[in-house]
Design brief:
Elements (H helix, E strand, L loop, with lengths): L1 H31 L6 H24 L10 H14 L1
């Protein structure tokens, strides 16, 4: 059972990191190309930033190994607050 959980953690972490790279590339393209700096581009950039920050928080939270009780609470609150922006 532990082996399955370790594999799932590794898979979720790898997918999260891949997602962060793809979101970063999208953000870079929308910030660099002048044709995409219109209202539509600004909306996309805002949404990409929100999803990027939320994904980063989820990857950190999923891989957190707290030493004391309550150490994950600030990260979970961060994910909760940024997650509200993506809905």
């Amino acid at each position: 059972m532990y082996s399955l959980l370790a594999r799932l953690r590794s898979a979720y972490t790898a997918c999260g990191i891949l997602s962060l790279f793809a979101l970063s590339a999208t953000l870079h393209v929308y910030r660099v190309l002048p044709a995409l700096r219109n209202l539509h581009g600004r909306i996309v950039v805002g949404n990409v930033l929100a999803v990027l920050v939320t994904t980063l928080g989820l990857v950190l939270l999923y891989n957190a190994r707290p030493q004391r009780e309550g150490e994950c609470f600030p990260i979970s609150q961060f994910v909760s607050i940024t997650g509200c922006r993506t809905e």
